[in-house]
């Protein structure tokens, strides 16, 4: 009977310990959690960005939903609505975060964490592969955590054998 009580007493400790370890794994990306609204611009013009980041599937992933709306312009008389959905995950073998994005245009970008600054305020992901685009293209996502309620995101592309250029830059402000 004594062993039974010991096991019952240890179960919450073991469960709490596992939860704490999983929570600490996500510390660099935890500031993203919530709903965001922002304005930004670049190649597609100036637009409004709606974004959300939420833990899913027992905190094993962070799901990202994005909708960017660009009003009509002289160069783009119909305007444009871009949507993508993405997932942050942690690759235990590589000991790195990954980002997978699925775009309305059919592109699938698979990124791996390139760097996190010592203060955890600048996070850079670079593509490993991009589906449904000519071979040799690369992409880079850089997140600058300005404060707990503001993020600046820079999305860059590189044609085969060329340097990265800024495709779009957005400043997001926390809504919830």
**Major β-sheet, in short?**
10 strands, antiparallel, barrel
Residue runs with pLDDT of under 50 for 5 or more positions? 4-17
Reported by name, the CATH topology is: Lipocalin
* Percent range of helical residues: 10-25%
Domain count: 1
How many whole angstroms does the radius of gyration measure? Answer: 19 Å
The count of β-strands is 10
Spatial strand arrangement across the major sheet: 1-2-3-4-5-6-7-8-9-10
What is the element string, with H for helices and E for strands?
Answer: HEEEEEEEEEE
CATH architecture: Beta Barrel
Within CATH, the superfamily carries the name Calycin beta-barrel core domain
Count the helices. How many?
A: 1
What structural class should be given to the helix and strand makeup?
A: mainly beta
The CATH class label is Mainly Beta
Distance between the termini: 49 Å
The overall pLDDT, averaged over residues, is: 90
Global geometry: globular
Quaternary state of the chains: single chain
